[in-house]
Design goal:
The protein is α/β, with parallel strands linked by helices and 64 residues long. 19% of the residues lie in helices and 25% in strands. The protein has one domain.
Length: 64
Amino acid sequence: MKSALILGGTQFVGKRLVRLLIDEGVEVTVATRGLTADAFGNQVSRLIIKMVIHLPIICLGHGR
């Protein structure tokens, strides 16, 4: 059986993609932040992920 990991499969394009994959018989795992409920029930596995944003550090005047 084929399997797929979908990042953010609870809204917009992701939700439609998950539905298409389920209908095609693909074993789907949805990775989300867990903030939005979905209607997939036990048809998918779920991973709750934490989003971490790393901002670059800008050094002004370095080496002067």
